[in-house]
Amino acid sequence: MDACGLTVPPSRLRTLAVRATTRREVRPVPPRRGLVRPTATGLRVRLRLAPGQEVADLAAATERLRHAWSVHAVHVAEIKPGVAELRLVGFDVLNDVRMPRTGGGGGLLRVPVALREDATPFVRDYRTVPHQLTLGATLSGKSMYLRHMVAGLAPQRVALVGIDCKRGVELAPFAPRLSALATDPAETGELLPALVALMEERYDLIRARQRHDGATSDVWGLPEEERPVPVVVFVDEVAELFLTATRKDEERRDELVTHLVRLAQLGRAAGIYLEVCGQRFGAELGKGATMLRAQLTGRVCHRVNDEASAKMALGDIAPEAVMAACTIPAERPGLAVAADSSGRWTRVRTPYLSLTDAATHCAIHAYRAPTLPSLARFRPVASTAVESESTGS
């Protein structure tokens, strides 16, 4: 600790006591070390910081600690005021991703989708981070991330809605589990108003409950028997909703963007959450793009083709993470930088999941897809192959 600059000068009382009782040299005071606990990927050491120290001092010395311990990486986490934990990782856990057995799930709207660089699972928690933006270039692993999201939510009591303007090539395989699907801008222009109407119905339900006892301001405060099912909306290639060729297309775009912004601003209290994916998402897409992006609390940036794309995802919440996103190599698909509005960020990597396995998993749980009357006309028709798999399961 002294060699890594993590000690403080002893207090005057300690100095006098040492000199009065012994002739030893008065040494600097290091943090008090707790038990060293082995893990599957390295060690964990809990430290009680010395007076005058803070967790930022440990974070600044992680590179020196890494060389001192001869490990691949050292990560610092604050347990409580004055207590920090060092997580020593002995090898690159993102090279061959293996999710831990305790995956961090176990709750509604919580999905472990990737592995952090400190060997802990990265959990997508919609109750904590309602809306998220995921960016990535072609073959960056963005579609793999989306598959894990859909497959992780499939067994839960959640309505899944897909908007895939690439003619449905990404989300159509999951049709048995989807409650609604739009595969082009025209269908999206009908689906989004229906979602806004559903949101307004839920607000009326909340307001009616408030007149009764004034107990809640969102659907999670309603009694379980009255609580509507949560809805997760997946938007793949969001730029397709902004592109225009004629003046009529501009009117259509403005309407679509208005509905998306309303869902992002008001949907959380109604139990409606957005998962927006694309290759680029900046002001050049047109009016409303920046406003929509500002409502998306979570950010995941895979490999991108230029620094400007990384800044679109991370520049406004974690500027220091932009360079980390720009250095993701093409030969490591699935590697990404995850951040949120708190400014915290970490590298994560999604394990491999084939489209066939994800589609089969959704077919197995097709019976869990709730029927929403207001979205019934958008319910996709599963292919015969998928239906037969579901029946056989």
Automatic annotation (TrEMBL):
InterPro entries per the UniProt record, alphabetical: FtsK/SpoIIIE/SftA, FtsK_dom, P-loop_NTPase
Domain FtsK: 119-311
Record: residues binding ATP: 136-143
UniProt entry keywords in alphabetical sequence: ATP-binding, Nucleotide-binding
Pfam families: FtsK_SpoIIIE (PF01580)
GO MF term set: ATP binding; DNA binding
First and last residue of the signal peptide: none
UniProt keyword 4Fe-4S, yes or no: no
Protein name stated in the entry: DNA segregation ATPase FtsK/SpoIIIE, S-DNA-T family
Species the sequence originates in: Streptomyces harbinensis
